[in-house]
Amino acid sequence: MQAFPISDALRQHPLWASLQAEVQAGDNVIAAASVDLNRALRFDAGLLALIQSGHGFRLLALGADGRQVWPVVSGMTLRCHDHAGLGCLELGTALGREQHWHFTLADQLGVTRLQDAFAQSQDELAGKPQPARADDAELCPTCQAPLPPESEECPTCHRELHTPPSTWVLLRLGRFAKPYQGQLLLGFLLMMGATGATLVPPYLTMPLMDQVLIPFQNGQPINTTLVGWLLAGLFGAALVSWVLGWAKTYILALVSERIAADLRTATFEHLLGLSLEYFGNKRTGDLMARIGSETDRISVFLSLHALDFITDVLMLGMTAVILFSIHPGLALATLIPLPFIAWLIHLVRDRLRTGFEKIDRVWGEVTSVLADTIPGIRVVKAFAQEKREALRFKEANANNLAVNDKLNKTWSLFSPTVALLTEFGLLVVWATGIWLVSRGSVTVGVLTAFLAYIGRFYGRLDSMSRIVSVTQKAAAGAKRIFDILDHVSNVPDPAQPVPFDQARGALSLQGVHFRYGSRAVIKRLDLDIQPGEMIGLVGHSGSGKSTLVNLICRFYDVTEGSIRVDGVDLRRIKVADYRRHIGLVLQEPFLFFGTIAENIAYGKPGATREEIVAAARAAHAHEFILRLPHGYDSLVGERGQGLSGGERQRISIARALLIDPALLILDEATSAVDTETEKEIQKALDNLVKGRTTIAIAHRLSTLRKADRLVVMDRGEIVEVGGHDELIAAQGHYWRLWEAQARRAEEHDEGEGLMVVAPNPNQHTVAA
User: Fold this and answer.
1) Residue 340 vs residues 47, 344, 348, 416, 606: alpha-carbon distances, Å
2) pLDDT band at 528, cuts 50/70/90?
3) What is the DSSP letter of 293?
4) Class of residue 99 by CB neighbours under 10 A (exposed 0-12, middle 13-18, buried 19+)
5) Do the record's keywords include Hydrolase (predicted)?
6) How would you classify the pairing of strands 693-697 and 663-667?
7) Region 228-238 average pLDDT
8) Are the CB atoms for 319 and 457 separated by under 8 Å?
9) 698-714 pLDDT, tens per residue?
10) What sections of 439-538 are H helices per DSSP?
């Protein structure tokens, strides 16, 4: 069994020397992977290796638990699952899970190789034949593993194989074309007329040659009347072809642009309806590329290339009929290259299709670098990481270039080969035609017309072969679009929703359980919240507070149990109807590019200026807004650039106030501002929470003193519920949090009281 490549990073692992010491004479390290988390999910060095010796395989684990070895026997499994950047590798036997290891996805490639090697060891133990690896096989540029024959993707790097796009996916665009079927039918009829008109001139060359030019060379006078009619026919055919061609091109271009616009709109609307879980697994740049460049590519395909393809098919069909009507023998000679061209198209089609989808994915990586870097340019400059980001973009762009170069090798050979085959076919027609003329079977005029038709026939054949490329590009783009449209939201609307026009704000959580993948985040949670009550959620980071808020907002659905609002299960209410009654104030308020007034009125676009100003006054934002150059009409930069954190937060509070929500969610609303700004925000929050059911998360426990009840969470469970004084007296979890925070505050105050006085460079005095 051949070993998998070991990366340079793995050879620098702290335990690599220990692994080498374990390798005995004659042993072979088949694969190795780094596991960098211990049982408590804290970083710790660990190493797994599959070793082959003369008597079989063994799995070796080195790490915090010391040295562990498992002889590999038939029936063992090595499974991996991951979620949110954390992975778990499980060794299983017939009796169940034998051992497991946690790791970040930093060495996901190493883990994948280890799984592949383990699977191959099981095949070998079961006596299954192992595929031979050719020494001259092409290597994957990422992992240096041999690529399978006739494959452009490494199965090791791309464990989740992408379903190759099929050309038939383009037929799914039919539902977007249905509203324009009348215009499409008109365009098709105009196309047939234009194509038919272009076939008239070659046919008129036969009488021009046989009845005018050749008789004239033999001494007969020219029939000017016949010449006039023939020239008029040529001009009329050209004029009709121009008019019909212009009309069909204009109509079909308009239709294709509208189909693409509808596709773009439908994709974006569907994307907005998907749950947060979908966006957690996608990169912004990739989604932007799909909705932007992919729909543009489909539009170009529909307006130009699909039109050309249909025209080519009509031209080939009509030309073939005319050729056979003129001379069946010559027509058959014309078709000699067709089987070879069809075979060539079939040969390269799959490579082009998968290649173009790969190009789309790597281009998504390029746009993702831009989408990451440009919004975070302040952080990039603050840490002087311009060169690093430029290198990231350069590497992504180089990857894009490499993928394009590989595809161009195939395409650059395909087109000239088709041209060569058509030239060969033309040569056969010339030879056959000259032989037939010499025998008197056809006239020179017939051969001339035939050659004119042949030129158009082969020209269209060459054009159709080139359309293979753009068709596969469009198919790859359509597949990426339909990947979005086919995705079903994990937070669906009910088939028969319960009307929810008014909300009192009563919440009841019964047996709520929630998982991220296989990791339980909320466990057996029960909580009742009365209308108008203010609840403070406290607990260590990772205790499940934000997840609970996400469940209440129905950004996710519970795995088990139910959440009821005013006695109705959330899953029986339309998502939009429910969220209309929720006001959300986040730790990092998000403002859109636009005016201050537009941002305040985001949740209520029809709000009057008086309502906007009243909300701003209640949020203590009116005064600083008036100090801006254009007041409420001042433009806010992207993500609120130009405003301080406290100003952005007060605008977000005004935004929540304006919709007058029955349920208010405050997620660390004052944690990122200074003390003075916090006081201003707290005044605004006091106005906001009046008469509303409020759920507030805060790390500064002092900000929750006004809460009716405090709910203390730990590891996804509620461990304490009560008022501040009650929980302090109980000296439980909340008391420990309070004491720890008080000690940090005292240490901070003492640190603030120290200052360094340096009257001269040679004297340093520390004074309180």
Assistant:
1) 55, 6, 13, 13, 65
2) very high
3) I
4) middle
5) no
6) parallel
7) 84
8) yes
9) 766 767 777 888 999 88
10) 444-485
pLDDT, averaged across the chain: 77
Q: Residue 311 belongs to what H/E stretch? A: helix 306-326
At residue 161, what are phi and psi to the nearest 5 degrees? -65, 135
Q: What is the dihedral of CA 638, 641, 647, 652, to 10 degrees?
A: 10
Which string of b and e fits 247-275 if b means at least 16 CB within 10 Å? bbbebbbebbebbbebbbebbeebbebbb
Q: Distance between CA atoms of 694 and 699, rounded to whole angstroms?
A: 16
Residue 134 has pLDDT above 70, yes or no: no
Question: Which of 217-221, 283-287, 668-672 tops mean pLDDT?
Answer: 217-221
In terms of residues, how long is the chain? 768
Q: Given pLDDT bands bounded at 50, 70 and 90, which one contains residue 508?
A: very high
- The answer to whether the beta carbons of residues 326 and 446 sit under 8 Å apart is yes
Alpha carbons 695 and 586: distance in angstroms, whole number: 12
Cβ atoms of 433 and 451 within 8 Å: the answer is yes
564: enclosing H helix or E strand: strand 560-565
Q: In this structure, how many other beta carbons lie within 10 angstroms of the beta carbon of residue 20?
A: 10
Is the predicted pLDDT of residue 141 greater than 50, yes or no? no
Asked whether the CA dihedral 280, 282, 283, 287 is positive or negative, the reply is negative
Query: For 119, how many CA atoms within 13 A lie in the half-sphere containing its CB?
Result: 10
Least confident of 110-124, 477-491, 630-644, 752-766: 752-766
Written as six digits, the tokens of 245 are 């061609």
Q: Look up residue 595 and give its DSSP letter.
A: E
Structure tokens at 458: 């082969």
Residue 131 three-state SS: coil
Whether the Cβ atoms of residue 397 and residue 367 lie closer than 8 Å to each other: no
Which residue reads 């042949």 in tokens? 454
3-state secondary structure 614-632: HHHHHCCCHHHHHCCCCHH
Beta-strand pair 507-516/560-565: antiparallel
Half-sphere exposure of residue 86: CA atoms within 13 angstroms, side-chain side: 13
Instruction: Report the alpha-carbon distance of residue 765 to residue 563 in Å, rounded.
Output: 61
CA angle at residue 540 from 557 to 83, to 5 degrees?
A: 45
Percent of the chain with pLDDT over 90: 2
Q: What share of the chain is helix, strand, coil (3-state, %, to 5)?
A: 55, 15, 25
Q: Which of 66, 69, 43, 68 is nearest to 56 (CA)?
A: 69
HEC-encoded secondary structure of 75-86 = CCEEEEEEECCE
* pLDDT score at 164: 47
Closest CA to 688 of 668, 663, 711: 663
> Which pLDDT score, from 0 to 100, does residue 159 have?
42
Give the tokens for residue 325.
Answer: 């009507």
Query: Which residues are registered as beta bridge partners of 755?
Result: 767
pLDDT digits (tens, 9 = 90+) for 404-422: 787 777 767 776 777 777 7
How does residue 280 score in pLDDT terms, banded at 50, 70 and 90?
low
